[in-house]
Amino acid sequence: MYSTRAIQTASGILQRRRQQARQEAAARQEKLFARYPELEQYDQRLRSLTRSIALAAVSGKGAETEQILAEIQQLQGERRARLEQLGLAAGCLEPQYTCPLCQDTGAVEGKRCQCMETLLREESCRGLPSVVLDGRSTFDTFDLGYYPDTPVPGGRSPRERMAKILERCRDYACHFGAQSGSLLFLGRTGLGKTHLSLAIAGQVAKQGATVLYASAQSIIDRYERLRFDRGPTPDDREFAQMAPRCDLLVIDDLGAEFSTAFSQSVLYNILNERITAGLPVILSSNLTLEQISATYNERIASRILCGCTSFGYTGEDIRFLPQMEKKKQKYRKSRGANKLAPRFLLFISFRCSSALNTR
After folding, report:
1. Inter-CA distances, 201 with 10, 132, 134, 162, 172, Å
2. What is the largest CA-CA distance in the chain?
3. What is the CB neighbour count within 10 angstroms for residue 355?
4. Could you give the 3-state DSSP secondary structure of residue 255?
5. Angle at the Cα of 305 (from 128 to 159), degrees rounded to 5?
6. What local confidence, expressed as pLDDT, does residue 252 receive?
7. If you write DSSP's letter for every residue of 120-179 in order, what string do you get?
8. How far apart are CA 306 and CA 68, in angstroms?
9. Could you count the other beta carbons within 10 Å of the beta carbon of residue 195?
10. DSSP state, 287?
11. How far is it, in rounded angstroms, from Cα 217 to Cα 255?
12. pTM across the whole model
């Protein structure tokens, strides 16, 4: 199911392509007819025969129809031979459509053409955040090197744990379907929950599924504008229409929204409708399982905790670690082998570690 906006945009692109192809064909015909008048005579005769065959078909004159068809074929053969003599391509007088299969109509034998499907997938991807479109939030850019490789007592290291989660997310996106099930990503801020949510969303959208991505607060804001008539936009209406029915809904920062009876009602209705219909949803939250149970009423909490497969993210804030590494590299480059460098780097590490511990 594609959004109305995606369908309208894709249809508009095809319409413009078809119009442009016809305009370019008309311009070529005008030049060639002026130079080779016999080509225009062929064209006029073919047009006349085409009208005649339509009238014969309506009148039920089968024999006359067959005779006209034979004459059209003969005339087309003569025109091809003449074009070849002139050193011109056989289709130079016809519109050169981007998609020869559907002639840029978007449909073949009543079914959606592949070119239309491609445009719809592209438009669906454009609705995702820019970090997906520019390739910053993909599986390949998810760097496990930022996670500590030191095992924790009685378990695996954060790096091993995140490697397993990354593998599961890749597999989920690769084999995504209506029965893929829902996911719940839990963990402190900056552990990669949003990155992997977006990586899944981007790949699933490229595979042809319709995907919506939004934070929990932005969803509530949209529904408030609609419910209380606070200047809702066409995007708000389309989102409310698509959220319960799209192939995949990704809700980020669950628990960070301002909690009211209205917000809980909105979230419950969306989650209940999707889970009841077996439609997947991906939720990410900084809350723990216990905090989710305390934050939401029993109906929502049960949908979240019982309807999703949970993944616990561990490690340090990976959004801050690259900044620390850049500072170190910049200092090494500018100061070289200065004897004060080790002390300065130690100072930076201390400041960065302090900042992480206060988040």
Report:
1. 20, 8, 14, 18, 11
2. 101
3. 13
4. coil
5. 65
6. 95
7. HHHHHHHTS-HHHHTTSSSSTT--GGGS--SPPTTS--HHHHHHHHHHHHHHHHHT--TT
8. 70
9. 23
10. S
11. 9
12. 0.70
Asked if the model's pLDDT at residue 281 lies above 70, the reply is: yes
Of 18 and 53, the structure prediction assigns the larger pLDDT to: 18
3-state secondary structure of 256: coil
Would you list the DSSP string of 181-248? Answer: -EEEEE-STTSSHHHHHHHHHHHHHHTT--EEEEEHHHHHHHHHHHHTTS---HHHHHHHHHTTTSSE
User: Amino acid letter at 68?
Assistant: I
- What CA dihedral angle connects 147, 150, 151 and 152, to 10 degrees? -80
**pLDDT above 50 for 38:** yes
pLDDT: is 64 or 89 the higher one?
89
Backbone φ and ψ of 232, nearest 5°? -65, 145
Q: What are the beta bridge partners of residue 186? A: 285, 312
Task: Round to the nearest angstrom and report the end-to-end CA distance of the chain.
Answer: 41
Q: Alpha-carbon distance 158 to 144, whole Å?
A: 9
- Span 67-95, mean pLDDT? 89
At which residue do the structure tokens 């095992």 appear?
151
Q: Which backbone phi and psi does 33 adopt, to 5 degrees? A: -65, -35
Residues 6+ apart with CB under 8 A from 53: 65, 68, 69, 72
Mapped onto helix, strand or coil, the DSSP state of residue 339 is: coil
Cα–Cα distance, 245 to 2 (Å, whole number): 10
Q: Is the pLDDT of residue 237 over 80?
A: yes
Which amino acid is residue 1, in one-letter code?
Answer: M
What number of H helices and E strands is found in the chain? 14, 7
Which of 235, 243, 248, 2 has the alpha carbon at shortest distance from 117? Answer: 2
Under a CB-based contact definition with an 8 Å cutoff, are residues 94 and 25 in contact?
yes
